[in-house]
Amino acid sequence: KGRMENRTWSLRVTCFVFFFITSSSAEFLIRQVTESKDSSVLETEYNLKTNLGLTRVLRNQRPSSKIVTIGSFSVIRERSEPYESSVFEASGYKWRLILYMNGNKNDGGNNHVSLYVRIEDTESLPTGWEVDVDLKLFVHNARQRQYLTVSDETVKRYNQGYREWGYAQLILLSTFHNPSQGYIVQDTCSFGAEIFIVKPVKQQERVTVLSNPPNNVFTWRLLRFSTLQNKFYNSQSFLVGDRYWRLETNPRRVGPGAPHLPFNLEAQGFRPNAVATTTWGAVNLRLRDQLGSNHRLGYSAAWYPIRPGYKVGLNIIYIRDLRGGYLVNDSIVLEAEMVMNGEWEMESESHMFRFFLYHHFLFCRVPHSTGEVTRELRSERPSSKIVTIGNFSVVMERFEPYESSVFEASGYKWRLILYVTGNKDDGGNNHVSLYVRIEDTDSLPTGWEVMVDLKLFVFNARRHMYLTVTDEAVKRYNQGNREWGFGQLIPLSTFRNPNQGFIVQNTVSFGAEIFIIRPVGQQERVSFVSNPPDNVFTWRILRFSSLEDKIYYSSEFLVGDRFWRLGFNPKGEGEGRPHAIPIFLYAQGFRPNAVETSTWGAVNLRLRHQLGSNPKRASSAAWYPIQPGHREGVSNIILRKDLQDGYLVKDSIVFEAEMFFRVINKVSSTPPA
């Protein structure tokens, strides 16, 4: 099952060693781990850094899928049985939280709290179903009013064989129980989950730099040159590829470079129905020699942003030199030849790589201004956007950002913003920088804010995997912060190293995964009630001497939201057979419309003394799972030979069950901060 993290960890270690031996990139990743050992997220007794591949960070935002709060926690803090929450819906599927207060010993959870998420109601899913999940689990820290967020950044692959995933070592018991840490306050604690479905994007945006595109030469003749004023004159627009362009010059330019004739190429709008992206424009600019072939030449190349008006050019000639065949009949001729132009297209899934490796192999963390950045390899494609750039060597030295086409993810519109040589204004020197900008915000309400769980990706073609970069911090998009990402996505020395595999056949790919965090508005609250109403049930068993060697059951009785019954075998069970009488409490179904969760049953079991006041007693307390039939009790409440001492009267005995604690589950609209 998904709990078997030990086996999974062994696989990760094996694969890590394999890549260390066969790949120099492992040295880079290991070096990053070593260099970042002194970084920390929070000064507390508990080390929030990696533990067996886990990251632990504190965040302010509530989980978006489920919160379970347990009051009177001291009642059950020593129990070994798991608590199963009510069913909740998240991302279109149904789930339960499974909590081990003292750790799941079968999954390496000794001395820890263990927490899992199990998918439910899978009968309605198609044969061979599979659900890929980005899973985060939480423990509320009431003292700091924050949530300890636990993740390992691997995609959890739920299917018929793996219906449950989580973390056996969620948090150390010594930390969790320590009053100064703040996880248990006023005998109350809270846990949570955040579940996002990873559905790999089925298309990618492919940018290819074309040489000598069609209709790539535009000629502009300026007449009456001597009468032109000190201002910029523009040609008519011309279309190359999906975008309109125009030329610009100022024959009387003043200021720096005044003796020269400036010659610029200016990007305009896009043709109808074209996809607006940053456009690569490489152009030969010529001032024609109208009396010969000694043209003045210049070359310009740049990423032109989406917004019209951006221009790049040069000073092509001294004004005084125009007379030598360039100015004829008071006119000059300027020419632009687009030698390279970016072409944009969408590629379907059939043209993209498909990968079936599973589990991450390498894990590293590096310091970052907004927290601790984690980088790991995963096989699943990003679920929101992929941009692939062909002929990458043409643009690999450019400093201008590439802005992708607009794409929709999680109900909002976005663009990727890529700096292939780093965003120097964000500490991106010697790195690739990548960001996601929210678009079309004019339609959002005043004071809008969108909280995002953001992951960015670089495709490693040699391994057929994606380097996944995140820092676990929730990104708050608003009017003042429309763009978030990582100035230091990946070092240029690593990205450009042919042995690393990020640039293969002169092609690179980047991606993004955007999940919206909408803090859950309700919580499931578990509390315990002493001596609940109608908590005593009496069962008289007649004709005791004629009973057979089998289990006999009482009628059902209701305490709280659940039905119960007593059961026993008159010939004995287990160690007490055949000399002792057993008695057990069985959990049954729930009353109609009740919330079905694990049920705390604390009961006094008694065999009545029918001739006096000396009953035989046994106590039992446990979490009863949701599925009916679980029992707790004793195999020896009395020896058979002692029945005659007032317990067996007129061939009958009397059992009693007194439920002295029961659990209350209810939904509250005021989850912890």
Describe, in plain words, how this protein is organized in 3D.
This protein is mainly beta and 673 residues long. The strands form six sheets. Strands 12, 13, 18, 19, 21, 22, 23, 24, 29, 30, 31 and 33 form a twelve-stranded mixed beta sheet that branches. Strands 1, 2, 7, 8, 9, 11, 34, 35, 40, 41 and 43 form an eleven-stranded mixed beta sheet that branches. Strands 3, 4, 5, 6 and 10 form a five-stranded antiparallel beta sheet that branches. A hairpin with a 4-residue loop joins strand 7 and strand 8. The protein is rod-shaped and about 135 Å long. The chain starts with a helix and ends in a 5-residue tail after the last strand.
List the helices and strands and how they pair.
Layout: H1 5-22, H2 25-35, E1 55-59, E2 66-70, E3 83-84, E4 88-90, E5 93-100, E6 112-120, E7 130-141, E8 146-151, E9 156-159, E10 164-172, H3 173-176, E11 189-197, E12 203-211, E13 217-222, E14 233-234, E15 238-240, E16 243-249, E17 260-270, E18 279-287, E19 296-304, E20 311-318, E21 332-348, E22 363-368, E23 371-378, E24 385-389, E25 402-403, E26 407-409, E27 412-419, E28 431-439, E29 449-460, E30 465-470, E31 475-478, E32 483-491, H4 492-495, E33 508-516, E34 523-530, E35 536-541, E36 552-553, E37 557-559, E38 562-568, E39 580-590, E40 599-607, E41 616-624, E42 631-639, E43 653-668
Parallel strand pairs: 2-34, 12-24
Antiparallel strand pairs: 1-8, 2-11, 3-5, 4-5, 5-6, 6-10, 7-8, 7-9, 7-11, 12-21, 13-21, 14-16, 15-16, 16-17, 17-20, 18-19, 18-21, 22-23, 23-30, 24-33, 25-27, 26-27, 27-28, 28-32, 29-30, 29-31, 29-33, 34-43, 35-43, 36-38, 37-38, 38-39, 39-42, 40-41, 40-43
